[in-house]
From TrEMBL:
Binding locations of ATP: K14, H208, I209, G210, N211, G212, D283, M284, R285, G331, V332, G333, E334, N335
Cellular compartments annotated: Cytoplasm
Main location (coarse class): cytoplasm
Biological classification of the source: Bacteria, Bacillati, Bacillota, Bacilli, Bacillales
Protein name per UniProt: Acetate kinase
An MF annotation (GO) of this entry: magnesium ion binding
Length: 401
């Protein structure tokens, strides 16, 4: 059984082809800068030479076509024909209240995901493009959708309701949903396993810090609160997203600058965060570079990012009346040792002691970065959203058979 996993992000598309007989990855890759001047496709076939292709890829349909061409290529391909792909699993950010678990794609599922476009304008449209392109290129192959929001459906009402007129929830389902659930679920389980302790007994704070970023309070294995809200805009400061902001700022600026709702949304989602404060980049590598050189705008961006993340960790320790484990994951969380060091060295009131040397180690495996006397275990756990999606896809397709 071969499963192709597609993670269609706002301007990128990641893919992995799994052989599920042993969960081995046959090939993986990434299409970056979709819709920008020159897109980059990086294809990594296991055991073969990596290839990079620069071309103009304006939307996700073309991206998938190029991915399939690479997977079946005579030289750097890993399968002879597309027909070897038995199922496709898609990451979908927003499942609303409808999807509490992964689901098989059919007409009804697709139109429900479309109905949820407003709730995840940067992400759900890309997912539907991925699904449609897969249907066109791989007709008859079953497809499964795995939702970022599903894991957070356990949040209690007091965590997911906004203090605004209830009619808005009743009419439009305006509430908090969270995101990155597949990752928070995976790394919290992996952390318990690494520590050899029962998940049911643990209070874990998982920090998924990538381009999009969110923090989750996981108590006894379930999400009890998370920093993203109705859309992936709430919470932490991110690469290009503002995170938490006084809602009064929005109508004020819309009025002053004569912005449409779409323009206001674009300002907060695409032109804010690290990019806005640094004035140069949304990429944490560039921000750290600037910070280390003492460049003032990057320094402010880094300090705001760190401060806001630290405040969320503190508030989730309060939400759970304690914390046993803190987990860092995703692009920034797994790699930015300086950010981890700054966050953790300012959380000593929680009894956290950092092992500075362990924090500098680079590895693809879960690892402990807290010192032996630390009251809270701090781990770096590489996330693997794709593996979770492949497993769910296999299970759901087999249940149908
Ligand atoms: N070595 C590194 N140091 C600091 N940040 C890094 C490093 N490598 C990657 N990143 C950050 O990780 C981010 C991407 O994370 P990722 O989890 O892949 O995001 P997404 O899934 O949202 O595209 C990049 O924007 C970059 O800022
Ligand atoms: C939901 C979200 O923010 O996703 P990503 O981090 O992939 O942008
Ligand atoms: Mg991601």
């Amino acid at each position: 059984m071969k499963v192709l996993v597609i993670n269609a992000g706002s301007s990128s598309l990641k893919y992995q082809l799994y052989d599920m007989t042993d969960e081995s990855v046959l090939a993986k890759g990434l299409v970056e800068r979709i819709g920008m001047d020159s897109s980059i496709l990086t294809h990594k076939p296991t055991g073969k030479q990596e290839v990079t292709e620069v071309s103009e890829i304006l939307e996700h349909t073309t991206a998938i076509r190029k991915v399939l061409a690479n997977l079946t290529d005579k030289e750097h391909g890993v399968i002879d024909s597309i027909s070897e792909i038995n199922a496709v699993g898609h990451r979908v950010v927003h499942g609303g209240e409808t999807f509490k678990a992964s689901a098989l794609v059919d007409g009804a599922a697709k139109s429900e995901i479309r109905r949820l476009f407003d709730l995840a304008p940067l992400h759900n449209p890309a997912a539907v493009m991925g699904i449609t392109a897969s249907e066109v290129n791989m007709p008859g192959v079953p497809q499964v959708v795995v939702f970022d929001t599903a894991f957070h459906q356990t949040m209690p009402e007091k965590a997911y309701m906004y203090a605004i007129p209830r009619v808005l929830y009743n009419k439009y389902k305006v509430r908090r949903y969270g995101a990155h659930g597949t990752s928070h679920d995976f790394v919290s389980k992996a952390a318990a396993e690494y520590l050899g302790r029962p998940l049911e007994d643990l209070k874990i704070i998982t920090c998924h810090i990538g381009n999009g970023a969110s923090v989750t309070a996981v108590k006894g294995g379930v999400s009890v609160d998370t920093s993203m809200g109705m859309t992936p805009l709430e919470g932490l400061m991110m690469g290009t997203r503002s995170g938490d902001i006084d809602p009064a700022v929005v109508p004020y600026v819309m009025n002053k600058e004569e912005l449409t709702p779409g323009e206001a949304s674009s300002m907060l989602n695409k032109h804010s965060g690290l990019l806005a404060i640094s004035g140069t980049s949304s990429d944490m590598r560039d921000i750290i570079d600037g910070y280390e050189k003492g460049e003032p705008n990057s320094t402010l961006a880094f300090e705001m990012y760190e401060y806001r993340l630290r405040k969320y960790i503190g508030s989730y320790a309060a939400a759970m009346d304690g914390v046993d484990v803190i987990v860092f994951t995703a692009g920034v969380g797994e790699n930015a040792s300086l950010l981890r060091e700054k966050v953790l060295s300012n959380l000593t009131f929680l009894g956290i002691e950092l092992d500075k040397e362990a924090n500098k180690v680079r590895s693809g495996d879960p690892r402990r970065i807290s010192a032996s006397g630390s009251k809270v275990e701090v781990l770096v756990v590489p996330t693997n959203e794709e593996l979770v999606i492949a497993r769910d896809t296999l299970r759901i397709v087999q249940e149908q058979a």
